[in-house]
Amino acid sequence: MALRVAELEEKINKLTNLLSADQLHHEEPNQPDATRNDQSLPTPPLSIGLDPRPLPPAGNVDQRCKPGIDEAAALQADIKSIFRTELPPVVEERLFSDFRTTFNQYFPYVVIPPQATTAAIRKEKPFLFRTCVSAACHTDPVIQKQVAEELLRYIGERMLIRSEKSLDILQGLLVFISW
């Protein structure tokens, strides 16, 4: 037991000496590069990238994230202005069903609840819905190309111009990139 304690103390002393030597190394900026120890890299300060402002209380987050009635209507109007390729609802339903049954195995990162309806997904996650329909529309390359161009326009508008971040956009991008 005493031998084990002595070994541990020796290791602690070695580590302490290494840390002291490393601190001296960082305090000597004029030292030539050839004599520096390449194994010890400087570590960035912990505060880089951290926002010093406090986070809002948890109760306010839900209220801010839920769009109001006017915002939801504006979102739907905006989506209709970008997605101009109109597919009949029956065709959209069939393509989305095909995506769920056939293609979903290739996109395991997109979980669509079995009880979710096509209308609900179209309303709640419009970008994901359009990418799923587009991926399943492989039999009609003309329509698929038109929808792909609209999806790119949507990405440019939402992500690049408005800096929006959402699970809908993330999952839709994953499907879009993968197909």
From TrEMBL:
<keyword id="KW-0805">Transcription regulation</keyword>
<keyword id="KW-0804">Transcription</keyword>
<keyword id="KW-0238">DNA-binding</keyword>
<dbReference type="InterPro" id="IPR051089">
    <property type="entry name" value="prtT"/>
</dbReference>
<keyword id="KW-0539">Nucleus</keyword>
<feature type="compositionally biased region" description="Polar residues">
    <location>
        <begin position="32"/>
        <end position="41"/>
    </location>
</feature>
<dbReference type="GO" id="GO:0005634">
    <property type="term" value="C:nucleus"/>
</dbReference>
<feature type="region of interest" description="Disordered">
    <location>
        <begin position="19"/>
        <end position="56"/>
    </location>
</feature>
<dbReference type="GO" id="GO:0000976">
    <property type="term" value="F:transcription cis-regulatory region binding"/>
</dbReference>
<protein>
    <submittedName>
        <fullName>Uncharacterized protein</fullName>
    </submittedName>
</protein>
<dbReference type="GO" id="GO:0000981">
    <property type="term" value="F:DNA-binding transcription factor activity, RNA polymerase II-specific"/>
</dbReference>
